[in-house]
Specification:
4 helices; 107 residues; extended
Amino acid sequence: MKTLISIAVMSVVTLMTRAIPFIVFRENRKTPKLIKYLGDVLPYAIIGMLVVYCLKGMDILGPTHGLAEIIAVIYVVIAHKLWHNLVVSIGGGTVLYMLLVQLVFVA
């Protein structure tokens, strides 16, 4: 019974976090400038944080000198500039990185 109650509470909370923005910013209300500003700025800030997080463990002084990470980042940048497709750039970069660390730069 505890499990069912927990699942119900989590479901309601998840549904409310999805619905609240639509309730608060209905069509007849004007979206505040701060919210519009955050909507413009936050995606780039989050991507920047993800890049820093992904590269924080890179060992430049190690045996591979971070070559797998550098090659994968270069691939992601070039692929995104060429095709503007997130699946190709990020997914391909992830696959390339995993292949490099598993098959090429084996420590």
